[in-house]
Every structure is written in C-alpha cells, then in structure tokens.
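We modelled the chain as a single entity of 370 amino acids. Its sequence is:
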Amino acid sequence: MGAETLGPRALGRATLARQLLLSRSDVAPLDAVGHLVGLQAQVPRDPYVALWSRLDRFRPASLSELLLDRTVVRTTVMRATIHLVAADDCLGLRPLMQPVLDAELARHPEFAPRLEGVDLEPVLSHARALLAEKPRAGPELRSALAERFPSRDAAALAYACRCKLALVQVPPRGLWRRSAQVTTTTAEAWLGRSLSRRARLDDVVLRYLGAFGPASAADITTWCRLTGMREVVERLRRRLRVFRDETGRRELFDLPDAPRPEPDTPSPTRFLPEYDNVLLSHADRSRFVTAAAREGASRASGRILGTVLYDGTLSAVWRDEMTEDGLMLVVTPVVRLTKRAAASVEAEGRRLARFLGDGTPGEVRVAPSR
C-alpha cells in the first residue's frame, strides 16, 4: 500500500495544531518556547506577539521575567538568526548550528576577505575573556579588539566573534516596553554552564517535526539551514510515519502520534509578528501561502510588521502606528476578503491592539480588498 497523500490544507492544519495556533493553549510561556524550539526574535517585540497569538491569558511580563532570570536567552541559532530559546536549548543547539555560522562568516562579502589568513584563535580567546568579564556593546567590543589587534580590521574581528562564539544578548534588550542597544556576553558566562556536546541532531529533527511537521528533508534544511538532512531522516525512517504531498513526488516525514486534524477543521484568525517561524520553516510554503497571497504580499507597500492568517492561510499584512487618538492597527489584505473574513480580521485586530496598548483599546483599519 502506498503512502497516504496530504494536501496543503491538511498539512496546514497539522502544523497549526502543533504551533498552538488552532486554539490558544494554557501551557506556560517557557514550555511553549521549548515546544516551538525557540521563537524568531530579531525584532525584540516579536516573541511577545507570537506568544500572545498562541497562549491563553499571556502576560508580557512573564516572558520578560524569564529573560531576567536567565531561563530563556536571545542568541544566534537556526539560520544564523536571533532566536529566543530556553537556556538548555541555547547550550545544546548552538554547537549543532556552528556549521551554519561558519558558512555565514565564510561568505560575508565585506568581512570574509578581510579575515583571509587571520589566525582567529587569539582573537576569540581575547574576546571570550573580555565578554566574560562583563557584557559589552558592539562599539565597546570593536574598540577593545582594535586596541589588542591594531593591524586587523576590528569590525571583521567582531563579526568573527559573533559567528564563532556562543553569544547571548542580555537584558534590557528584549524586555517588554524596553529599548536598549545590543549588548552581549558568552552563553557560558551568562548561564554559568558549558555548551553541551551531547545534543544530537536526530533529536532536534524529531522536535522540529513535533512543532512543524509533517515535513520533507528540504523543509528541515530550510528551518535550520544545515545540510545532510536527508541522511538524518533516513536514520530516523523506522521511527517515523511517511506521507506524500499531493503531487505524489515528495516524501513527508512525521511523528507517528503527532496531531493531524481533518483538513476542514476550523482555523481561527491569527495575527503573527513580522518574523514568525511558522512561515519561515518550510521549503514549500503552500500549506500557508497560496499563489494569490504571494503575489498580493509582493505588492503590499509601506512598513510591514506582521502577517494575518485567515482560515489557516496568509490573507493580510499588518502594521501599527501611533496617531493623535492612540494606537492604530493598519491591516492590508493580500487576497480578497469576504465581509465575514474582514469582520473576523478586524475583531482579532482589536484584541491585538488592546494587547499592544497594554489594555488600552486601539483602532483597527482594514483596507478594502483588491
């Protein structure tokens, strides 16, 4: 008997269920961060919006408290981008992602040529000691490196430290309603523990499937940017259930007992932050993004801070701005919305505006569908 076929809608519902987006969950913020294998966090506010859309009665202060007590940290992991992850995941995931950061450094158009032939070990050793002494902002680290290695390009050396050392961004960066420049120290100094060399890529792939599956080997590569994912899923094949996409050409792997709701399962309107892993972690994004939505999103103008899922697919983009009357949420559809859909988007937008306004009601403007 051939493998069962899963179309985009079935795949979307399965992933939304695991992403806590079919219904808000009552799990603790730390448990949600761990289950999702971290939250994309280049923009400090994004993890708060991501958790608000996923958790029942989420309080921003609860996530800030986790940052302050060092239970979660902001660090560079999957795709060489900033994520907010549990402390244990920082220590375990960061060494596994080192090849991605090595590649990032090697292909940097400005810094890679300036580092050719440079022995980085003395640089990294010096930077590690400086950052263990106290967290330092970028200009401070570059100045210290320039003083110690005057014949080298300090900016290139600092970027090498960013890629070669496990650095974490310390609070107040990342706290709710706080703004601060990026200041870093090493994960080992901040957490008081060594990086873990015991973490296994096989286990990380299983966790990915638990949060993003069903998925292909190419999807897993898109999520983490590591190569060799086909070999990993082949090692795991006996532990996985195998499906095929609607074309019948791609194998999709999944945990046997993971939720796979029916394709017609209702999917409530959800507002996502500017960067949300649910839309960044598959090579084939057709489970969430139709051809029409992709075309519409490419035409959207102005500063975009997030996306809107209606009936499980990308349907609009949003941004917020301050007006004379207070906070305004501006929603621009990227596909034609029915009156019912527009009303649902507006209602959820009002809830988000209240959250962003710390309980103060805000206005929502949904632009006409094209």
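As a brief sanity check on the tokenised model: The two ends are 45 Å apart (CA to CA). The chain has three domains: 6-13+20-191, 200-254, 289-366.
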